[in-house]
């Protein structure tokens, strides 16, 4: 398998962490989708990463679809429950973490996209998106409480998704003091950063 992605993307990191935890072999192909020379559309018509290219050339895209597929490839380290409320809980955690990222990415693009002049950037839009980020962090903190992990007593996709979101905020929005505001999230992140899968995929 070949994974097309960027080392700065939190969605790509989520897939890479899952692959590492599942002990799956793959080749990583770095791709800058913002470059004029990018060829990502040959694999994903939406022009986005991550994109997983199978041995037969078929492409699977969207990080949620990819990690769901990857979890079925090996019984090692099951990350998503098969059915029921436990499955819904893990997928909801993933949706919350990805939603925080979606809002953060929109705010960052508004602030940095080269296609706009400074006078064209909407402060109100950025404030709205960062409000979603803060609300999402609050919901994560409340959901985690004093538990060792987001869902149950073992690592799951819930924790991977949350960890990738927190790591990206640390990378791109160091001014958001989520560690101070939510010490339980900081403890979870510190625990995740002891895992080789998180050490090896730190955004840069």
From TrEMBL:
PANTHER family: GLUTATHIONE S-TRANSFERASE OMEGA, PTHR43968
Organismal lineage: Bacteria, Pseudomonadati, Pseudomonadota, Betaproteobacteria, Burkholderiales
Species whose genome carries this gene: Diaphorobacter limosus
Pfam family, one: GST_C_2
Protein name from the UniProt record: Glutathione S-transferase N-terminal domain-containing protein
Coiled coil: none
Protein origin, superkingdom: Bacteria
Record-linked InterPro entries: Glutathione-S-Trfase_C-like (IPR010987), Glutathione-S-Trfase_C_sf (IPR036282), Glutathione_S-Trfase (IPR040079), Glutathione_S-Trfase_N (IPR004045), GST_Omega/HSP26 (IPR050983), Thioredoxin-like_sf (IPR036249)
Domain GST N-terminal stretches: 1-78
Gene3D superfamilies: 1.20.1050.10, Glutaredoxin
Annotated GST C-terminal domain residues: 83-204
